[in-house]
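Co-fold these.
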Amino acid sequence: MRFLLPKVALLIPAAGSGERFGASIPKALVQLNGRTLIEHTVLNLGPVASQIIVAAPAGFEDKFREILGGAVTVVTGGSTRTKSVKIALESIAEDIEFILVHDAARPLASGELGRSVIEALASGEVAVIPALSVSDTIKEVDAANYVVSTPNRERLRAVQTPQGFARETLIKAHMQNIEATDDGALVEAMRGKVKLIEGENRALKITNPEDLATALKYLIPNQSSDIRAGVGVDAHAFSTDPERALWLAGLLWENEIGVDGHSDGDVAAHAICDALFAAAGIGDLGSNFGTSKPEYAGASGERLLSETLKLVTGAGFTIQNVAVQIVGNRPKIGSRRVEAVTKISQILGGVPVSVSATTTDGLGLTGEGKGIGAIATALITSSGR
Ligand code: CTP
Ligand code: MG
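Predicted complex below.
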């Protein structure tokens, strides 16, 4: 599993109205392949951060909170992007060392890109921004549209987000109270060193409606690759020991009674592991972590998921997504759904995850309140090895 650096805050300016996009709702709430842009953004980059702050358009704060759940701090954005970032900055936690600023308008920037930015910061850079070389020749023009100059294309770069900063650098940059379309320019204005790293095409910015079609291409698996699906099911009965802790979907559920089992009994994690093994055709939970492997006795759901990731990628597969449905009367999942999604996604290296829940009309072990079950599916692709 790729490592995670703690002490990173992710600030997401999402308070723009999306004038050029022209929808009747703020651009961050526009749907792309069944999810809003802000959800894509948080799901892709959230896993690299320990704190997430989103600047929402005034009047839409509660809508954002409802979509994003309790793990995300939602603040009211300002009248410009720079002001929105400055407002979000006021909420960063004391122990934050690095800050990533990332536009909600770039929903598909990958966690990997976020990690590359953080790595450059960890190596001592104070401002790091992803960039691509430009293929068009760029002209500088005056107000009447006459060309003023033609900068050498070799030296031009188109910059993206997430842009990363050492905490104090970004705070100082914003104390200048000047406006710019990116935060790198604010550091530049105080003569700070801004380092460029290689950006990625999928971090494209959604500005006009046609940009959605381009973005969609990155969400549909390559047709030429081998696509496989798998299913996994697990259930455990509630423990008679009232002290037994409940672990579910990688999270500890306070004030809930746990389930029996040799492991931590995380049925959601187990069902996902089984779905991944089934998709890859490399056995199941029992054959990979069962009694013949005593080193896994008592293992946490988190550990089993991360070991499963290693086995599935080791067999030549890339996880495209996992979905898990928790079956039971309690705990109620809704308020911690985004937290659970983020946690599982983090463990699985940043893949798209969905977590849902249902009751079963009083039927069966779970309906009678005797335990918790989970059903998961996984989609994986092989690079044709
Ligand atoms: N943004 C913000 N606060 C503002 C304006 C913009 O947080 N007052 C955010 C947008 O939500 C977006 C990012 O800054 O995630 C980049 O801005 P842009 O792509 O220009 O989005 P909009 O300003 O919404 O679009 P437009 O300029 O077409 O109105
Ligand atoms: Mg704008």
